[in-house]
């Protein structure tokens, strides 16, 4: 059995400014950096030895991963966030109500099922080929949520609401199936 730790990046400038952030990027805030260090402590406190690591090619994901672990990692385009097309970097009030479906296609972005397939196939392929037992992947909120949706039929737990910055989703991978085992929402009061 392998364990996948799928994690959202730390808070960014655009998160703070309530801007739509998919393929566009903005730097981690000071809080975002501190969130990543709190996530690092989770792995240390639980004696989790990470054997391999992957990050979205977005700088916010790579910077988060580098604060969480010193393990060499691979940048992977398939782990990128939803492409929101022309609405990238615009204010979040332009988002439609959930579920988004194919709303962003008209703006040159990705449809929901296309996006879900990209992320889930990327994660599946990486974990299947990886020889390590404990694998860390740092990605994005919607990417993590879409992966959860693909495997909700094998999982006994769910997370209503948003996936918080630096939230860790712990999946077991066995016989080509993922099952969500734990949702780690950190207490950031010490860094606020």
From TrEMBL:
It comes from the Bacteria. Coiled coil: none annotated. Gene3D superfamilies: Phosphoglycerate mutase-like (3.40.50.1240). InterPro entries: His_Pase_superF_clade-1, His_PPase_superfam, PG/BPGM_mutase_AS, PGM_Phosphatase. Pfam families: His_Phos_1 (PF00300). This is Histidine phosphatase family protein. The lineage of its organism: Bacteria, Bacillati, Bacillota, Bacilli, Lactobacillales.
